Amino acid sequence: MDLLPSCHSEFSSPDYWESFFKKRGKIPFEWYGEYPQLHHVIHKYISPSNTVLVVGCGNSALSENMYDNGLQNLVNIDISDVVIRQMSDRHREKRPKMEFTRMDVTAMSYPEGHFNAVLDKGTLDALLVSEEGQVLQNVNAMFSEVARCLRLGGRYIIISLLQDHVQKHLLQFFTNLGWPIRVHRLQMEPTEENSKSISMPVFAVVLTKLKAMPNMPQIVEVCRFEDRIDRLEGVQYLSAIIKDMQYYHIVRQQLSKRLPGDQQVSLELHSADSDVPRYSLTVVDSPSPLPQKFAIFIVPQGRQTEWLFSTDKGRLHLQDSAGFQRLVVVILNRGHSFENMEAIKAELSGKVMELAPPDCPRKSEVPFLSIGEDLGRRFPVSEGTSPASGPYIVEDVEINGGQLFRRLIFLQTQGVVQTEARLIEVRKKKKRRGQPAREGPPEKVKVDKGYLPSDYLTGMVAGLGFLPSIDKPISCVLVGLGGGGFPSFIQGAFPQVTVEAVELDPVVVDIATNWFDLQPDDKLKIHVADGIEFVHGLVASGSKRDVVVIDVDSKEPGVPLSCPPAVFVEVEFLTAVAKLLTDGGILILNLASRDDSVKLDVLERVRSVFDQCARLDLGEDINTVVFATNQHSGGSGCFGDKHRLDTVLKAMNKKIESVFRDSNVDVVEMME
């Protein structure tokens, strides 16, 4: 039976609905749920004494259910003669007070202020099928007629999917009138019919007619947690929340089946008392069925940026190691407190079963996994806003049973630790037996400047071994300061090196000096400047440097080249760097991209400018350290000379030595 329109514009055609109801006959057709799913909202806003207009009633059983449950002053209108005759005949004897009238909702004959409430279940969505001029004109006419017929204080209740174009026009129209807006998410029970296809969540929009009051802030509210009403600052926040709820609904439907290929689904869970997500979840499915069906993995605080938890490949490796068909990886977000694993388990247990795979028994006990029993702890240190990089936070993180680290994180890219430093507690008191764990961070700490937090920094430092000699004064330009971990390490380990660090953002310089103990001196000079212009200026003055280090991240989210920004690997700039370097001088470049073709393109450009090039790939890390030189005098330094690397490694900490020893230094690939 062909009951759906072949073109969406037919929804607003009277001829379509005449044909529809003739085909449908006496079988009720329910748009967006039935009375059991709607009664909570209906009876919350409509009382038995109210006179209620039901627009676009169709042959739905909703009005008869309302009538039988005490709401008997019902007037039903529809554009279809057929359905009005059907409904009048059906209810004439059993429900004599209920009226059915053929009427166009865009041109009603009722007097002004006649109704206490107007109920629309799907009519708006049927009319607002596009944003074409005639369609919007019809919808505006309906809104205006409803507003005219409602009494002051009356409620206009709209049951809708709130698709983007519907939501946009609805909110705009009634915001202009200054009416309070409240949105409820309706809980619909899954049925066999809607489980076979993607459906959308259903909302109830409650609009209250008030007198226009100039300069009166509009009331905008949302009900996300049963009867809890949250007031918002504006309709833009309401739109964002509606999109989140729509996304979660669709995600749940996706997860009712096994995820295809290597697809992973991410979502966020909010608590009732905060707009900041409490948990971030990623669902990972095994490519093949496994006997153990479902588990939750809690990532300790402070470890969420590690490869194992922050990348698709890492999470897939974690899922394979855990041995469960579906693993939900849970990040504990900053801005919230977490008591212990049992408290997290109690909080999540009721929600996670919504994410279980289809063959997981509904009443099965879901195991919660983690690394040890330590959930980690965060201690905010400082926060602010950089004009260049947006809001940031400096926080101390305690992981692995007491190791303390300080981190700089820009909140626009929360998954990336901009800078990390290991902290050492000063005058640490010995813990007495039975003494409770420390509540907050240590009172006195200092930055461990001999610590390099990442393998790519280790590789960059070791790149000094490619210089013809490291036993004489060395001049270095560093573009990109961050928290100053690299120059601070060089400052302590290689007193013969003079570093000029160039940083575009003065806020970053302040953070490095105030919170990461960066101490400029005659061997470490800080320049607040544009790195491109700084290098070109040195070249123009005829200056030379032994080393140029490029370690700048891109501030543009979603670009394939996350480090450095594309301008730093253009041939023009690379040529300027080559001119700046002394004979045998070294370019050390931090290159980060998940797109191998982008990496190869950058490497080709470097090779087109420099005589000798090498790269250090770091396995699971997306960073590649690129080394390049132009050597014209036949000096002894070259990338094939591993002895020079060994010389540098012995002067560095064990971590640097172990990284290269584990790789046998063969990962330094020569680019012929």
TrEMBL record:
One of its GO terms (biological process) is methylation. Residues 53-158 form the Methyltransferase type domain. It comes from the Eukaryota. Pfam families: Methyltransf_11. Belongs to the methyltransferase superfamily. This is Methyltransferase type 11 domain-containing protein. It comes from Elysia chlorotica (Eastern emerald elysia). Keywords: Methyltransferase, Multifunctional enzyme, Transferase. GO terms for molecular function: S-adenosylmethionine-dependent methyltransferase activity.
